[in-house]
């Protein structure tokens, strides 16, 4: 599979910007099937960085109601990474 399809997008919210400013942590939304080792390999290849720690969490399924129908949103995996030597990923924020 293509690596760009597995890493969906960087998550940019108020909370993630505060995490970046205080702890130098980046947040990404990735495919649910990836494990930590695969995520580390893909991010090292894409951004040419050395990752010191990776934390992952799978968010629960959300239900949405549109008129009389109830549907499910897909669940996804959120990844928090910390980079060694306070290096930065360019053009992310």
Could you please describe the fold and organization of this structure?
This protein has a single domain (3-84), classed as Alpha-Beta Plaits. It is built from three helices and six strands. The chain has helices at residues 3-6, 14-23, 36-47; strands at 7-10, 25-30, 51-58, 63-66, 69-72, 77-83. The relative contact order is 0.25. The model has no long low-confidence stretch (mean pLDDT 88).
Distance, first to last CA = 27 Å
CATH architecture type: 2-Layer Sandwich
List how many beta strands DSSP finds. 6
SS class: alpha+beta
Write out the CATH superfamily name: RRM (RNA recognition motif) domain
- CATH names the topology as Alpha-Beta Plaits
Largest sheet: 4 strands, antiparallel
Q: Mean pLDDT, rounded to whole units?
A: 88
Rg (C-alpha, Å): 15 Å
Shape call: globular
**Regions with pLDDT < 50 over 5+ consecutive residues?**
none
Count of runs of 4 or more consecutive helical residues = 3
Side-by-side strand order of the widest sheet: 1-2-6-3
State the helical fraction: 25-40%
Overall structural domain count: 1
Reading off the top of the CATH hierarchy, the class is best stated as: Alpha Beta
Strand content: 35-45%
What is the chain-wise order of helices and strands? HEHEHEEEE
């Amino acid at each position: 599979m293509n690596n760009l399809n597995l890493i969906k997008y960087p998550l940019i919210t108020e909370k993630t910007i505060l995490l970046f400013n205080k702890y130098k942590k980046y947040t990404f939304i990735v495919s649910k099937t990836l494990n930590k080792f695969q995520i580390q390999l893909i991010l090292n290849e894409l951004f040419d960085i050395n990752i010191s720690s990776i934390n992952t969490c799978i968010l629960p399924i959300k239900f949405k109601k549109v008129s009389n129908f109830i549907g499910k949103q897909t669940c996804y995996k959120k990844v928090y990474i910390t980079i060694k030597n306070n290096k930065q990923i360019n053009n992310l924020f």
